[in-house]
Structures are given as structure tokens and as C-alpha cells.
Amino acid sequence: MIAQHFPILQVVLPLMAAPLMVLLRRGAPAWLLAVIVSWTGLFISLSLLAQVADGSVISYAIGSWPPPWGIEYRIDRVNAFVLVLVSLIAAVVVIYSRASVAAELPAHQHYLFYSLFALCLAGLLGIAATGDAFNLFVFLEISSLSSYALIALGRDRRALMASYQYLIMGTIGATFYIIGVGLLYLMTGTLNMADMAQRLAGVTEVRAVLAALAFITVGICLKLALFPLHLWLPNAYAYAPSAVTAFLAATATKVSVYVLLRFYYSIYGESAIFYALPMGQILLLLSLAAMFIASAIAIIQSDLKRLFAYSSVAQIGYITLGISFDSVTGLTGGIVHLFNHALTKGALFMLLGCFALRLGRIRFDNIGGIARVMPFTSFGIVLGGLSLIGAPGTAGFISKWYLVLAALESGQWWIALAIMLSSLLAVVYVWRFVEAAYFREPDAKTAQLKEAPLEMLVPALLMIAACFYFGLDTTLTVDGAARAAQTLLQGIR
After folding, report:
1. Which of 34, 41, 175, 436 is the most exposed place for a label (fewest CB within 10 A)?
2. Residue 151 lies in a domain
3. How many domains does the chain have?
4. What are phi and psi of 130, to 5 degrees?
5. What CA–CA distance (Å, rounded) separates 375 from 381?
6. Nearest in space to 118 (alpha carbons), one of 29, 26, 21
7. Degrees, nearest 5: CA angle 236-224-143
8. Which of 32-36, 406-410, 450-454 is the most confident on average?
9. 313 with 289: CB under 8 angstroms?
10. What pLDDT is stored for residue 493 in this prediction?
């Protein structure tokens, strides 16, 4: 029965499609294949989420080697939630990408773009699905290497420098991660995560285990762009092709957060991380720094893509803030913000791509009065900005509400105040766009512009609509995040 092979098909389909696209050597068939693979992946991930909704775990052994000896794909309520997020974003962005890629990349690079997109998708899905720590590293490198190449395709020559900067920092992060995994293997004799979690309980040599934790934490925090390890992110988002920025902003850092959650709760365990070590306090301080400092830097940006890139660093701070509470409510808030921010920021960068199609670079000095000629795109950005702020009725409000509840539950009312104050900084940088787009007169060049094609505009606006839908109906997001939080707190079973 084909359904029993869904865990591996989720990864194998885009992995096999990538070289096939190169053999096709044509943009249109490669795009069509990417659409089929992405939407099939969404169907598979939704099916897997439904199968594990009752708390059961799917274990899929690769080849004839049963776990823990062989590689295992292990699906539970945590990574099923992440698989749905990644495949949903990919399915929407690949529709949007056709017109965007045609405008930003030369025709002879189109099939290469879709091949790299499929590789990146396979890597991200593999990171979420695998139950093997070294196999996770392999998929981490697949997604990272394809991301470096995708960013370098940007039409601005600074995209090459952004890609190189990301490559250097990403390689350092991957090296730290594999050193940490090597130390854990030395102490436990296994790479299977479930087996590793059980064997760690019997390890008496604490120093090597703590050193492994330090290496893995720094390595993954580089990948997820936790402040102040975020320096690769602003340029990567600013100079990459619009479809690449939208896809990576919504998925790459979110999958890295999942890896951090998996190691902290499932492998090391809640007591080791938050009771025996001060990881909660460290995460809290870095999260607050991200929320305020990155938002303040966003306010002074003159380029809109860089503005929302720094906003992403701040929003990652909210996610890690939820982790730092070490409670069901806090983890629920962090995980649901992972989903909601992916929708919001993916939509915003897609809409900025609509501006880029008409303007090239998107700066405050060339978007004056643009709302009069591109009203749907401009209004979509305003609505997405409301979700970033956390206005009632938006998905962002739900996330911040749970984070405030977690702060009050822990008796730290000042953190709840900090969440509200940092949201005011988001009001400032969103208002900067409103002031430029709605309250300035368009110049002669701007007055000649028109809306982006529907195949770009409709997917972006559908994502914006989803931000409001999930702000009103939280059945999938909050319930899914709460179940994932409970699963994490129970550890690997």
C-alpha cells in the first residue's frame, strides 16, 4: 500500500525531480514538475499529520536495517506540523515563482532554479522527517548548498557576496553541529535520536555531553539566525530573487527551530536543559535582544526587503522566547508563531516581489504614492504588517497572546510588557511604509506602473487571507501547536 511509504516519498519525490529537471533543460516543464512535486508533498504531509493526530508515532525503516541500526524516518505530532508548514509554503511559492523567475532570471537559468528549489525542498523535508542525527546533517547540507546557489542567482551583483557570507556562516554552523553529534555518538554509540535519548540517561561523563550541547546549540542558532548570530540573513533576503526570499524566510529558519526543539526536549530532555543548565535564561536574554534591537534596526532601513529581513530576526526572537518559558503555553506560543510568521513573512516577501517586478530595487525613495497605482499589493503589505504587529483578528495576535499568557503564568509580568512594547516598534516600521505609499505623491515614473500579474498577486493575497483566517479559526494552528508542545515535553517515546 503506497500510504505506508509516505514518510520516504515526502523526501524522495523532490530529490528525484531535481536531476530530472536538469535533464529537461527547459523552464516550463521544470516548473510544471516542481508544481506537481510540491502539491503532492502537501497532500502527503497533511495525510501524515492526520495519522499522528492521536499521538501515535510512525516509524519507517530505510532498507532492511531496523532502527536503531539503520536510518529511521520517525513522524510524530511535532515534525508532522513542520512538514505541513514547509510543503504548504512550497506549494504556494512555486505557483508564484513562474512570473517572478521569468522577470528576474535569464531564460537559460529557469530550469536550474526549479532544480535547486526541489533540492532545497527535499532537504528541508528530510530534516523534519528523519530520526537519525547524522542523516539530519546530510539533509541540512542539501538544503543549505541549494540555498547558497539560489541566493547567488539574484540579479544584483551583491547577491554573490550575500551568498558567500551565508556559505561561510552556514558552514561554521554545520561544522559545529556535526562536532556536537560526533561527541554524542562517542558517548552513546548511536546516531538514532530515540535510541540516543535513552542512552544519554546512562552516560556518566557529563563534560563531553555538555560540550556536544554547546556545539549543537551554536551551530543550529547560526542556521536559525538567532540574534546576534543573524548577520548572514539581511543581505541574503535582500539580494536573493523574490521567490527565493519568500521561500527561505518562511521555511529555512523555521526548520532550524524545529531541530533545536528536537535536541533540547526529545534528546537531552527538559530537566537537563532548563533545570540543570541556564539555557532558559540565555534564550530569554537573546530573544529580548532580538525583539528590540532587530526591530530598531529595521526602522532605520531604506530598503524594504532589508527592513522586513531585520523584522524576521525580531520575529525569530518571539519564537525562541516561547521556548525559553519551558511550559506548554510557552511552547504552544512559540510553535504557533513559527507557523503564523511563516505565513505572514512569506506573503510579505511575495508582495515585495510584485513591487520588485515593476521597480527593481524597492526603496522608500521610489515607492512614494505607489498605493495609487498598485493598490492591491500595497494594501496586502499593510494587512501583513498588521499580523506582524499582532493586531486582533490576525494570526500574529494569536501567537503573541499565548506568549503573554506564558509570561503571566510564570509570574514574569515584565516579559508580557516587553512583548507589547516590542510590538510598538513593528508599528513604527509598518507605518513608514504606509506613510510613503499612501501619503506621498507619485512621481512621473511611479504613475506609469501597474499591478503585478495575477499569478503573482493571487498567491500572495491568498497567504495574506490565511493570516486572517488563522487569526479567527485556530483549530489547525493552536491545537496542532499545543499537541506538538505536549509531545515535546513528554520526550521521545
Report:
1. 175
2. no
3. 1
4. -70, 150
5. 10
6. 21
7. 70
8. 32-36
9. no
10. 45
Q: Give the C-alpha distances (Å, rounded to integers) separating 110 from 105, 156, 195, 249, 291.
A: 7, 17, 43, 21, 37
Hey, what long-range contacts does 13-17 have (CB within 8 A, 24 or more apart)? 13/37, 13/40, 13/41, 13/122, 14/38, 14/41, 14/118, 14/119, 14/121, 14/122, 14/125, 15/118, 15/119, 15/122, 15/126, 17/118
Alpha carbon separation from 237 to 91, 294, 394 (Å, rounded): 20, 15, 24
pLDDT tens digits for 432-444? 888 888 888 777 7
Radius of gyration of the chain (CA): 21
Cell of 173: 554552523
Pick from 13-22, 45-54, 246-255, 436-445: least confident: 436-445
Which structural domain, as residue segments, surrounds residue 301? Answer: 278-493
- Report pLDDT digits (tens) over 345-389: 999 999 998 888 888 778 888 887 888 888 888 889 999 989 888
> Are residues 258 and 339 in contact, defined by beta-carbon separation less than 8 angstroms?
no
> Is residue 465 included in any domain, yes or no?
yes
Whole-prediction pTM value?
0.89
**Cell triple for residue 88?**
504548504
In a domain, 131, yes or no: no
**Is the residue at 166 inside a domain?**
no
Which residues on neighbouring strands pair with residue 72, listed in sequence order?
Answer: 61
> Which three three-digit cell numbers place residue 419?
512583548
The residues near 167 (Cβ < 8 Å, ≥ 6 apart) are 148
CA–CA dist 358, 361 (Å, integer): 9
